[in-house]
Write a structure and sequence with these properties.
Elements: H1 12-19, H2 23-30, H3 38-51, H4 57-64, E1 69-74, H5 80-95, E2 99-104, H6 109-121, E3 126-129, H7 135-144, E4 149-152, E5 162-166, H8 168-181, E6 186-190, H9 198-212, E7 220-223, H10 225-234, E8 247-251, H11 254-266, E9 276-280, E10 294-298, H12 303-317, E11 325-328, E12 330-333
Parallel strand pairs: 1-2, 1-3, 3-4, 4-5, 5-11, 6-7, 6-8, 8-9, 9-10
Antiparallel strand pairs: 10-12
Helix pairs in contact: 1-2, 1-3, 5-12, 6-7, 8-9
Protein backbone atom coordinates (compact mmCIF):
# COMPACT_ATOMS: atom_id res chain seq x y z
CA UNK A 1 0.00 0.00 0.00
CA UNK A 2 1.10 3.59 -0.58
CA UNK A 3 0.87 6.57 1.73
CA UNK A 4 -2.28 8.66 1.61
CA UNK A 5 -1.72 11.78 -0.50
CA UNK A 6 -4.54 13.96 0.81
CA UNK A 7 -3.73 17.28 2.45
CA UNK A 8 -5.52 16.46 5.71
CA UNK A 9 -3.14 15.62 8.53
CA UNK A 10 -3.39 11.97 9.54
CA UNK A 11 -4.54 11.58 13.14
CA UNK A 12 -4.59 8.79 15.69
CA UNK A 13 -8.34 8.51 15.12
CA UNK A 14 -7.73 7.91 11.40
CA UNK A 15 -5.34 5.05 12.20
CA UNK A 16 -7.80 3.59 14.72
CA UNK A 17 -10.55 3.60 12.09
CA UNK A 18 -8.28 1.90 9.57
CA UNK A 19 -7.28 -0.81 12.08
CA UNK A 20 -10.69 -1.30 13.63
CA UNK A 21 -9.46 -0.46 17.12
CA UNK A 22 -9.66 2.47 19.58
CA UNK A 23 -7.69 5.72 19.52
CA UNK A 24 -6.39 4.88 22.99
CA UNK A 25 -4.95 1.59 21.73
CA UNK A 26 -3.25 3.34 18.80
CA UNK A 27 -1.83 5.97 21.14
CA UNK A 28 -0.43 3.31 23.45
CA UNK A 29 1.18 1.44 20.56
CA UNK A 30 2.82 4.58 19.19
CA UNK A 31 4.14 5.42 22.67
CA UNK A 32 5.82 1.99 22.79
CA UNK A 33 3.45 0.43 25.31
CA UNK A 34 4.31 -3.29 25.49
CA UNK A 35 0.93 -4.19 26.99
CA UNK A 36 -0.70 -4.42 23.54
CA UNK A 37 -0.62 -7.71 21.61
CA UNK A 38 2.12 -8.06 19.02
CA UNK A 39 -0.40 -8.58 16.21
CA UNK A 40 -2.30 -5.38 17.04
CA UNK A 41 0.91 -3.42 17.54
CA UNK A 42 2.26 -4.54 14.16
CA UNK A 43 -1.03 -3.68 12.42
CA UNK A 44 -1.08 -0.19 13.98
CA UNK A 45 2.56 0.58 13.18
CA UNK A 46 2.18 -0.58 9.57
CA UNK A 47 -0.99 1.51 9.13
CA UNK A 48 0.71 4.58 10.65
CA UNK A 49 3.61 4.25 8.21
CA UNK A 50 1.40 3.63 5.18
CA UNK A 51 -0.85 6.59 6.00
CA UNK A 52 2.08 8.94 6.55
CA UNK A 53 1.34 9.61 10.21
CA UNK A 54 3.58 12.26 11.83
CA UNK A 55 3.54 12.63 15.58
CA UNK A 56 2.15 15.99 16.74
CA UNK A 57 4.99 17.11 18.94
CA UNK A 58 3.24 20.29 20.04
CA UNK A 59 0.18 18.40 21.21
CA UNK A 60 2.36 15.95 23.11
CA UNK A 61 4.28 18.82 24.69
CA UNK A 62 1.04 20.47 25.78
CA UNK A 63 -0.08 17.25 27.45
CA UNK A 64 3.22 16.54 29.20
CA UNK A 65 4.54 20.08 29.67
CA UNK A 66 7.84 18.98 28.10
CA UNK A 67 8.90 19.00 24.45
CA UNK A 68 12.44 17.61 24.96
CA UNK A 69 13.54 20.22 22.40
CA UNK A 70 16.14 22.94 23.01
CA UNK A 71 16.16 25.95 20.70
CA UNK A 72 19.45 27.53 19.57
CA UNK A 73 19.17 31.11 18.25
CA UNK A 74 22.16 32.43 16.31
CA UNK A 75 22.75 35.25 13.84
CA UNK A 76 25.29 33.71 11.45
CA UNK A 77 25.41 30.05 10.46
CA UNK A 78 28.35 30.67 8.11
CA UNK A 79 30.72 31.24 11.03
CA UNK A 80 32.46 27.89 11.68
CA UNK A 81 32.89 28.78 15.36
CA UNK A 82 29.13 28.86 15.87
CA UNK A 83 28.55 25.77 13.77
CA UNK A 84 31.10 23.66 15.66
CA UNK A 85 29.88 24.87 19.07
CA UNK A 86 26.25 24.12 18.17
CA UNK A 87 27.28 20.66 16.95
CA UNK A 88 29.03 19.93 20.25
CA UNK A 89 26.00 21.15 22.21
CA UNK A 90 23.68 18.99 20.11
CA UNK A 91 25.75 15.86 20.80
CA UNK A 92 25.76 16.53 24.54
CA UNK A 93 22.03 17.23 24.66
CA UNK A 94 21.19 14.05 22.77
CA UNK A 95 22.88 12.09 25.55
CA UNK A 96 20.42 13.75 27.93
CA UNK A 97 17.41 12.90 25.77
CA UNK A 98 16.98 16.29 24.09
CA UNK A 99 17.01 17.39 20.45
CA UNK A 100 18.02 20.82 19.19
CA UNK A 101 16.29 23.24 16.83
CA UNK A 102 18.62 25.86 15.33
CA UNK A 103 17.11 29.18 14.23
CA UNK A 104 18.99 31.98 12.44
CA UNK A 105 18.22 35.70 12.90
CA UNK A 106 20.66 37.00 10.22
CA UNK A 107 21.32 39.79 12.73
CA UNK A 108 17.98 41.47 12.00
CA UNK A 109 15.71 42.58 14.84
CA UNK A 110 12.43 41.56 13.19
CA UNK A 111 13.74 38.11 12.30
CA UNK A 112 15.23 37.76 15.74
CA UNK A 113 11.91 38.42 17.44
CA UNK A 114 10.24 35.97 15.03
CA UNK A 115 12.78 33.31 16.01
CA UNK A 116 12.13 33.94 19.69
CA UNK A 117 8.37 33.67 19.14
CA UNK A 118 8.86 30.45 17.17
CA UNK A 119 10.89 28.99 20.03
CA UNK A 120 8.28 30.01 22.57
CA UNK A 121 5.29 28.87 20.52
CA UNK A 122 7.00 25.54 19.91
CA UNK A 123 7.27 25.14 23.68
CA UNK A 124 11.06 24.70 23.72
CA UNK A 125 12.18 23.43 27.12
CA UNK A 126 15.12 25.84 27.02
CA UNK A 127 16.93 28.29 24.75
CA UNK A 128 20.57 28.95 23.92
CA UNK A 129 21.14 32.40 22.42
CA UNK A 130 24.22 33.96 20.81
CA UNK A 131 23.43 37.65 21.50
CA UNK A 132 23.40 39.99 18.49
CA UNK A 133 21.61 43.21 17.51
CA UNK A 134 18.34 41.72 18.79
CA UNK A 135 19.89 41.06 22.20
CA UNK A 136 18.03 43.08 24.85
CA UNK A 137 14.55 42.75 23.34
CA UNK A 138 14.88 39.09 22.39
CA UNK A 139 16.35 38.04 25.74
CA UNK A 140 13.81 40.20 27.55
CA UNK A 141 10.93 38.42 25.83
CA UNK A 142 12.33 35.00 26.71
CA UNK A 143 12.92 36.00 30.32
CA UNK A 144 9.40 37.44 30.54
CA UNK A 145 7.99 34.04 29.54
CA UNK A 146 10.24 32.39 32.14
CA UNK A 147 11.76 29.97 29.63
CA UNK A 148 15.22 28.72 30.71
CA UNK A 149 17.85 30.77 28.86
CA UNK A 150 21.63 30.60 28.55
CA UNK A 151 23.62 33.24 26.66
CA UNK A 152 26.57 31.91 24.69
CA UNK A 153 29.87 33.64 23.87
CA UNK A 154 28.86 37.00 25.42
CA UNK A 155 26.48 38.61 27.83
CA UNK A 156 23.97 41.43 27.34
CA UNK A 157 24.26 44.61 29.39
CA UNK A 158 21.30 44.98 31.72
CA UNK A 159 19.99 41.45 31.15
CA UNK A 160 20.12 39.00 34.06
CA UNK A 161 20.66 35.56 32.53
CA UNK A 162 23.09 32.67 32.75
CA UNK A 163 26.14 33.27 30.54
CA UNK A 164 29.04 31.13 29.34
CA UNK A 165 31.82 33.02 27.61
CA UNK A 166 35.57 33.25 27.24
CA UNK A 167 37.81 35.75 29.01
CA UNK A 168 37.81 37.98 25.93
CA UNK A 169 39.79 40.82 27.45
CA UNK A 170 42.57 38.43 28.40
CA UNK A 171 42.43 37.08 24.85
CA UNK A 172 43.20 40.53 23.47
CA UNK A 173 46.12 40.86 25.87
CA UNK A 174 47.56 37.50 24.79
CA UNK A 175 47.33 38.47 21.12
CA UNK A 176 49.17 41.74 21.74
CA UNK A 177 51.84 40.01 23.81
CA UNK A 178 52.54 37.45 21.09
CA UNK A 179 52.84 40.11 18.39
CA UNK A 180 55.19 42.15 20.57
CA UNK A 181 57.33 39.06 21.19
CA UNK A 182 57.47 38.50 17.41
CA UNK A 183 59.15 41.90 17.08
CA UNK A 184 56.37 43.88 15.40
CA UNK A 185 56.28 47.63 15.89
CA UNK A 186 53.12 48.57 13.99
CA UNK A 187 49.75 47.02 14.69
CA UNK A 188 46.31 46.67 13.16
CA UNK A 189 43.10 45.58 14.87
CA UNK A 190 40.36 44.21 12.61
CA UNK A 191 37.09 44.87 14.44
CA UNK A 192 34.18 42.49 14.86
CA UNK A 193 30.46 43.32 14.73
CA UNK A 194 29.57 46.38 16.79
CA UNK A 195 26.66 44.61 18.50
CA UNK A 196 28.84 41.69 19.63
CA UNK A 197 29.56 41.96 23.36
CA UNK A 198 32.98 40.36 22.95
CA UNK A 199 34.16 43.08 20.54
CA UNK A 200 34.99 45.87 23.04
CA UNK A 201 36.58 43.36 25.42
CA UNK A 202 38.96 41.87 22.84
CA UNK A 203 39.82 45.28 21.43
CA UNK A 204 40.26 46.78 24.89
CA UNK A 205 42.61 44.04 26.07
CA UNK A 206 44.67 44.32 22.87
CA UNK A 207 45.04 48.10 22.98
CA UNK A 208 45.69 48.20 26.72
CA UNK A 209 48.55 45.69 26.47
CA UNK A 210 50.16 47.59 23.58
CA UNK A 211 49.88 50.93 25.35
CA UNK A 212 51.35 49.53 28.58
CA UNK A 213 54.30 48.30 26.52
CA UNK A 214 54.95 51.85 25.32
CA UNK A 215 53.63 51.50 21.76
CA UNK A 216 52.64 55.03 20.61
CA UNK A 217 49.07 55.52 19.39
CA UNK A 218 50.16 56.44 15.86
CA UNK A 219 51.53 52.92 15.44
CA UNK A 220 48.16 51.32 16.19
CA UNK A 221 45.41 51.36 13.61
CA UNK A 222 41.84 50.14 14.02
CA UNK A 223 39.77 48.99 11.04
CA UNK A 224 36.16 49.56 12.07
CA UNK A 225 33.44 46.96 11.82
CA UNK A 226 31.68 48.39 8.77
CA UNK A 227 34.88 48.41 6.72
CA UNK A 228 35.80 44.88 7.79
CA UNK A 229 32.35 43.52 6.91
CA UNK A 230 32.44 45.25 3.52
CA UNK A 231 35.92 43.87 2.81
CA UNK A 232 34.66 40.36 3.59
CA UNK A 233 31.64 40.74 1.31
CA UNK A 234 33.78 42.03 -1.56
CA UNK A 235 36.83 39.85 -0.77
CA UNK A 236 39.00 42.96 -0.93
CA UNK A 237 40.96 42.83 2.31
CA UNK A 238 44.33 44.26 1.36
CA UNK A 239 43.33 47.96 1.63
CA UNK A 240 42.43 47.39 5.28
CA UNK A 241 45.95 46.23 6.09
CA UNK A 242 47.67 49.45 5.03
CA UNK A 243 50.74 50.14 2.93
CA UNK A 244 53.17 49.18 5.67
CA UNK A 245 52.65 45.46 5.82
CA UNK A 246 55.33 44.82 8.43
CA UNK A 247 52.54 44.77 10.97
CA UNK A 248 51.20 42.71 13.79
CA UNK A 249 47.54 42.05 13.01
CA UNK A 250 44.90 40.96 15.50
CA UNK A 251 41.52 39.98 14.10
CA UNK A 252 38.31 39.78 16.13
CA UNK A 253 37.84 36.16 15.03
CA UNK A 254 39.43 33.48 12.87
CA UNK A 255 36.99 34.08 10.04
CA UNK A 256 38.33 37.63 9.64
CA UNK A 257 41.91 36.50 10.29
CA UNK A 258 41.88 34.02 7.40
CA UNK A 259 40.71 36.75 5.02
CA UNK A 260 43.69 38.84 6.13
CA UNK A 261 46.19 35.97 5.78
CA UNK A 262 44.96 35.11 2.28
CA UNK A 263 45.09 38.74 1.14
CA UNK A 264 48.63 39.23 2.43
CA UNK A 265 49.96 36.03 0.91
CA UNK A 266 48.34 36.76 -2.45
CA UNK A 267 50.12 40.13 -2.44
CA UNK A 268 53.48 38.43 -1.89
CA UNK A 269 53.78 39.25 1.81
CA UNK A 270 55.05 36.28 3.87
CA UNK A 271 52.77 35.22 6.75
CA UNK A 272 54.23 34.52 9.21
CA UNK A 273 57.37 36.53 8.70
CA UNK A 274 56.97 40.02 7.35
CA UNK A 275 53.47 40.10 8.83
CA UNK A 276 51.82 38.09 11.59
CA UNK A 277 48.13 37.46 12.14
CA UNK A 278 46.36 36.32 15.31
CA UNK A 279 42.67 35.39 15.39
CA UNK A 280 40.14 34.14 17.94
CA UNK A 281 38.08 30.92 18.30
CA UNK A 282 40.62 28.38 16.97
CA UNK A 283 38.24 26.88 14.45
CA UNK A 284 41.06 24.61 13.23
CA UNK A 285 40.40 22.40 16.25
CA UNK A 286 37.48 20.82 14.35
CA UNK A 287 38.50 21.87 10.83
CA UNK A 288 42.13 20.64 10.69
CA UNK A 289 42.36 21.10 6.93
CA UNK A 290 42.59 24.88 7.49
CA UNK A 291 46.05 26.43 7.39
CA UNK A 292 47.79 26.95 10.76
CA UNK A 293 46.84 30.17 12.51
CA UNK A 294 47.71 31.57 15.92
CA UNK A 295 44.36 31.89 17.64
CA UNK A 296 43.04 32.79 21.08
CA UNK A 297 40.60 30.19 22.39
CA UNK A 298 39.54 28.25 25.45
CA UNK A 299 41.86 25.68 26.94
CA UNK A 300 39.51 22.93 25.70
CA UNK A 301 37.30 22.93 22.63
CA UNK A 302 34.65 20.97 24.53
CA UNK A 303 34.54 23.07 27.70
CA UNK A 304 32.19 25.83 26.57
CA UNK A 305 29.65 23.34 25.22
CA UNK A 306 29.85 21.26 28.40
CA UNK A 307 29.43 24.26 30.70
CA UNK A 308 26.57 25.64 28.62
CA UNK A 309 24.61 22.38 28.60
CA UNK A 310 25.17 21.92 32.32
CA UNK A 311 23.91 25.46 33.03
CA UNK A 312 20.79 25.06 30.90
CA UNK A 313 19.86 21.69 32.40
CA UNK A 314 20.32 23.24 35.84
CA UNK A 315 18.06 26.14 34.89
CA UNK A 316 15.41 23.72 33.58
CA UNK A 317 15.40 21.74 36.84
CA UNK A 318 15.87 24.77 39.11
CA UNK A 319 14.06 27.75 37.53
CA UNK A 320 14.77 30.05 40.48
CA UNK A 321 18.46 29.23 40.92
CA UNK A 322 20.88 32.13 41.16
CA UNK A 323 22.16 33.52 37.84
CA UNK A 324 25.67 32.50 36.90
CA UNK A 325 28.26 34.00 34.55
CA UNK A 326 30.98 31.50 33.78
CA UNK A 327 34.09 33.06 32.25
CA UNK A 328 36.43 30.45 30.81
CA UNK A 329 40.22 30.90 30.69
CA UNK A 330 41.95 31.33 27.33
CA UNK A 331 45.29 30.41 25.82
CA UNK A 332 47.01 31.18 22.53
CA UNK A 333 46.72 28.13 20.29
CA UNK A 334 49.48 27.48 17.71
CA UNK A 335 51.68 30.41 18.81
CA UNK A 336 54.49 29.25 16.53
CA UNK A 337 52.47 30.10 13.41
CA UNK A 338 53.01 33.76 14.36
CA UNK A 339 56.75 34.16 13.82
CA UNK A 340 59.15 37.06 14.18
CA UNK A 341 59.73 39.43 11.31
CA UNK A 342 62.24 38.40 8.67
Amino acid sequence: MTKDTGKKRVTIKDIAQRCGTTANTVSRVLRGDTGISEATSRRVREAAEEMGYVRNGLASAMRSGKSRVISVIVDDLLNPHYATLINRIDLLLKREGYDTMTLCTQGELEKGMDMAQLSLSGMADGIFYFPDACGPRLAGLIRQRRVPLVLLDRGIAGVSADVVRLDDRRGGELAAQRLLEAGHERFVYLSGPQDNGAEPLRRGGFLDRLQKSGVPGERIRIADSDRVQQAMRENRFLPLLGTDRESGIFAFNDQIAYYAVNALRQSGCPVPGQASVVGCDYIRSLLPYLQPLSSVAGTSGEEMAQRAVKLLLRRISEPDAEVREEILPVILQEPDSTAGRK
